[in-house]
Amino acid sequence: MAQQEAYAATEATPNFTRYWAGEAAATFEADFAEYRKDGVTITGLDTFYFREVTSLKDGRAVVAYCEDQSKAYLKNAETGKVDKTPTTLNSYIDARATMEKSGDGWQVVDYQATRGSKECRDEA
CA-CA distance, 27 to 8, in Å (whole number)? Predict the structure, then answer.
């Protein structure tokens, strides 16, 4: 949710920097900058499901999950106009977040995603 909050704000928020670090954070921060440059933000519903911890050892965990962006859209930040794009296979993402124990919480340090996941679409 911190990631979505930052996309809506088009900048790294305190929640984002609490839960995202290193290259994983840098990749998304570049996206936020592009959103600002393009004058867009996000709106709609972004659904996450089938979360599963696939590995947990040495202070690291890998969390696998699906993401359904079929009801998530870009919105013009100035006019408020929403770009309601059609749902396609690319609306479904198979994601893996590698997390490390950091202080009293966890941070995403590596993030891999495959857009166009038939498996995630079929389970949505």
Answer: 16
